[in-house]
Amino acid sequence: MKKSKASDVAILAIFIAIMVVVQLFTQFVINVWPFPVKPTLLHLPVIIGSIILGWRKGAFLGLVWGLISFVTATIVTTPTSFLFSPFQPVIGTHHGSPWGLFIAFIPRILVGILPYFVYKIANNRLGAGLAAFAGTATNTILVLTSIFLFFGSTLKWSLSYLLGAIVATNSLTEVIIAVILTTAIVPALTKARNNS
User: For the packed helices 2-32 and 43-53, what is the interaxial angle rounded to 10 degrees?
Assistant: First the structure.
């Protein structure tokens, strides 16, 4: 039992390290990336961690993801930083909004919870693919819907714009990447974890 818990903590630490590296790498790549599609990859360790380690540790990984988003948005000022940090002023104002914390944390924590339960429906590659889809869709839908609800008037988003953003190229790319990598990684990690 102790060995299993130590193994889980080690895996959790590896996922967190991967998230930090991916975030730093992504920040660099976005500046030189020549293509219009700029998918996020931070949801992958959260989804896979949820499936492998359980929903509680998945929620913790989601919390870490939210913290990474919050810190990045607070330190790096971009036109949309206020969406994830109350310390960045909302467009047209001199103050931030606490709703930035909601957007940064709540959807990401849920991304760490939902895939575990979806995967339990089918403990196989299909289940892993469905969990990846559910986790990615949860992030996309909740983040964009929250932005629409809390900052839609500021950004002049219409409902049709929101729906278009949910099914945009970035979203589809993120789903495809998540499904492919999760269905490949989860069985291998599960086997390795069971043999340790």
Answer: 170
